[in-house]
Amino acid sequence: MRHVSFVDNNDVTLLESGTAFFPALIAALDAAEYDVLFETYIFAEDPTGDMVRDALIRAAQRGVKVRVLVDWIGTEHGPSQRLGAIFTQAGVQYRVFNPWCKRGIARSHRKIAVVDRTVAFVGGINVNDDWLCDHAAHQRLAAPRWDFTVQVRGPLVAQIHDEAQGQWLRAGRLKLKQRIELFREMRKEPPQTCKYPARAAFVVRDNLRNRSTIQRAYLQALGRAKHSVLLATPYFAPGRKFRKALAHAARRGVQVTLLIGVGEFHIQDAVAHSFYPKLLADGIKVVEYRKTQLHAKVAVVDDDWATVGSSNCDGLSLFLNQEANVVVLDERFAATMRAHIERAILDGVPVRAEEFAHIGWLRRASYGAAYMVYKLVMRIFAIGYA
Question: Taking CA atoms, which of 238, 262, 322, 342 is between 20 and 30 Å from 89?
């Protein structure tokens, strides 16, 4: 397992939802001169997807080396095939991660873009319309999906670039000449400029050397927490270590608040509900976000630790999927992230311990049954979940 390694002198800018992310992404793509590495879980066939697709094609037609990797499950077979045909014809190099689940059920849930090794984007935002539900394409949301990405400039971009290169390499076969070309690209030193010297780390989860790196980053931060923890996640079903770390922090007097998305998948809600009595008994504040689809995977610990990425706090993200987060040690960035989460908490509904005291035995049993099924599935497919 790799340790979390921080590097200094990075500009890290928080981008909230697609309204901020996509204009910044397309501006970077339109300014690209050398290469683009682009990964996403969902690449939708909608106006947002068309806009990003066309920007990638414009870059390729200028002679930029553009490589696009999508997930087979997230993008789905039909759309991924159609997208591949369009990209290939336009000169974009294109691959699909784990088609037909030939390498097991692991998904590439990462959302990464690196342009000319000078700017990178890492977060939770897929390539789809903010107003459309990402698991029911024609279902309009009550408000734009709540999510985040970070834009990074500085020495951390080189690490993100190398990891994206490695993922491209692992996703399929390459000829010897192509491997040599990739090796040469990875040896080039990117320019480094910095306006705000933030310390930051790029952490990924895979099934090789980084099986627990993202969880380790969380556990270290929770173990050092002194006064506050704010954590937002669409799905809450972490393993025992993660839940204990939250409980221990709360018992030390740390104010721990969980903002959890609900209403997307009933079984996932039931699994999360099975944890509520214990969380509340440990002094953890639980708030359900009901304004729209919560897709953000973000957290702030104390005044200077924050993370943004693709990893949910559940068994799939922490023990099975390919994920990518950025961890930032910077008071300015943490204060910005904290303000966003606190505003979202005001839009949420606090869960009261007394409410669960009056839940009928049948519903309570259904929560427990949902958790037992979830735990069994995770034990089968995800090593380390408990």
Answer: 322
